[in-house]
Specification:
Strand 1, helix 3 and strand 2 form a beta-alpha-beta unit. Strands 1-2 form a two-stranded parallel sheet. The protein is mainly alpha-helical. It contains 5 helices and 2 strands; from the N terminus they run ααβαβαα.
């Protein structure tokens, strides 16, 4: 799957539940969305399997290890800065992701 398509799909799927800090329940949600995107969005002829990446402001290494232990899907957690450039490129800017996490609409796109 192209990173741009994957990024848009992930943001549509997860934008309502964004927070700044990773919690164990987020991995359960991500574990749900990965197969959904894999089955309904991914072009199976051209794209590899979907990988779920939880982007958070901070992470607790022990919590992440325990939270991922029960999942058999490819899941990861990272800070925005920790993502490789080719993964960050199609995503919204860090400030835009922070606004989503804070529940603040984009000021350049008025609502109503």
């Amino acid at each position: 799957m192209s990173f741009a398509r994957a990024g848009r799909a992930a943001l549509r799927a997860g934008s309502r539940g964004c927070t700044r800090k990773a919690h164990p329940e987020h991995f359960g949600q991500l574990g749900f969305y990965v197969p959904v995107v894999d089955n309904l969005v991914r072009d199976k002829e051209h794209d590899g399997p979907t990988i779920g990446i939880l982007i958070s402001e901070s992470r607790d290494r022990s919590m992440v290890e325990y939270a991922l232990r029960g999942h058999n899907q490819p899941l990861a957690v990272s800070t925005y800065a920790g993502l490789p450039e080719k993964v960050r490129e199609p995503l919204p800017a860090a400030d835009d992701l922070a606004r989503i996490a804070d529940g603040v609409p984009n000021p350049s796109h008025p609502t109503g």
